[in-house]
Amino acid sequence: MERTIVETRYGRLRGGMNEGVFVWKGIPYAKAPVGERRFLPPEPPEAWDGVREAISFGPVVMQPSDPIFSGLLGRMNEAPSEDGLYLNVWSPAADEKKRPVLVWIHGGAFLFGSGSSPWYDGTAFAKHGDVVVVTINYRMNVFGFLHLGDLFGGEYASSGNLGILDQVAALRWVKENIAAFGGDPDNVTIFGESAGAASVGVLLSLPEARGLFQRAILQSGSGSLLLRSPETAMAATERILERAGIRPGDRGRLLSIPAGELLQAALSLGPGVMYGPVIDGRVLRRHPIEALQDGAAGGVPILIGVTKDEYNLFTLTDLSWTKLGERELLDRISREVGPVPEAAIRYYAETAEPSAPAWQKWLRIMTYRVFVEGMLRTADAQAAHGADVYMYRFDYETPVFGGRLKACHALELPFVFHNLHQPGVANFVGARPEREAIANEMHYAWLSFARTGDPNGAHLPEAWPAYTSERKAAFVFSAASHAEDDPFGRERAAWQGRV
Predict the structure, then answer these.
(1) Domain containing residue 97
(2) How many Å apart are CA 330 and CA 336, to the nearest integer?
(3) How many Å apart are CA 414 and CA 403, to the nearest integer?
(4) What span, in angstroms and rounded, lies between the C-alpha atoms of 444 and 155?
(5) Which residues contact 208 (CB under 8 A, 6 or more apart)?
(6) Which class for 231: exposed (0-12), middle (13-18), buried (19 or more C-beta within 10 A)?
(7) Which of 275, 297, 319 is the last residue before a domain boundary?
(8) Which residues are the active-site residues?
(9) pTM score of the predicted model
(10) Is residue 302 part of a domain?
């Protein structure tokens, strides 16, 4: 049998090679969620006879086009499809060796993205670390997070969390099949960024996912990111159904409306409609971070962090942030994330760069409330229950767009994957000379964590101390990477009114 052919539980697959690494693309991990299966939980895929070709990526799931992020993230011009539940595997060899497995969950605000982006190519991980890498697609937007149970009955009670259930199904597939690709099903690290990190935060809290992974990495996200209450999700569903001309209970129209028409109906409501996991009492029984605080993932090591200037990225899609005056900015921020304590206002005023425009000064509030706060709560919860926790902050500032983005959201991605050479990357991260060194530090730290649960090693210029209840340390990735004790301490104290 050729080395590129593997035997899975569902049939044989023929893959290809890239730079000495074997890769299998477009592997179905669930039945196509179309027709009668639209808005239902994933089911195991059908078995096939013969050898299935696995040399091309499967379709991306239904999603809108997004020219800005398509250019930045190197997304391919693939036609989206409801039939998009596929995954991809990179491995040094399909042999009997049990290698650590890294399963990547992509971001994109639960609205767009795919596991086939060139930025997420697993070749470097497999080649440099002797690991197996898996990237997945999962249902998003209206197809993955439309809360229908209250209007269409118990059959659709899980519809508000289908994207999460797809991820669980993909992890089950990994558990059952990854040994055929040279991976260890009992040494799996899940990792994700933004909505992918939010997914990791949810998976940590789910009893159904327990045992499907042993470690977790959360990049710029936590279980509180884009999380929705049943009331918020229901209000969005009612607006979407009305716009799509679907009456509550009209199952025929719900299942027959063309996918593109349903997506456009949802998108026509504008950016006010958000997507994400729903605390539905069925799949997600409670707030994920509260579950972690009660020990839901006790003992599971995590690596978690943020970029220094997360929210600056979103000024690319909403330029109005950069045109508001100071008072208008603070008023809008309060509407977005709630009241800001006076102590926090003073902190941001006193610590801002003197030459920074008002929007850069005050968007640090958004960075804290949307990204940092959930990171700290997650780290505290895991540390309190005996887990090894490693925290980081990514400080490399991109020079593109006149330097205004600084160390923004998603900037660390090509560093972690060691994919600085991929299409579109230089347009985003620039070409500062220190980027190669930072990429080596992060890439090999992630590999070390996947192998042992500890990111330390000769690849770092100094030791990366664990984050504990007593010592809230973090590692700062920059031109002069280093460890710091409690770098978020003053900011957190300001929000808690302790300064």
Answers:
(1) 1-297
(2) 10
(3) 18
(4) 45
(5) 168
(6) exposed
(7) 297
(8) 194, 310, 409
(9) 0.97
(10) no
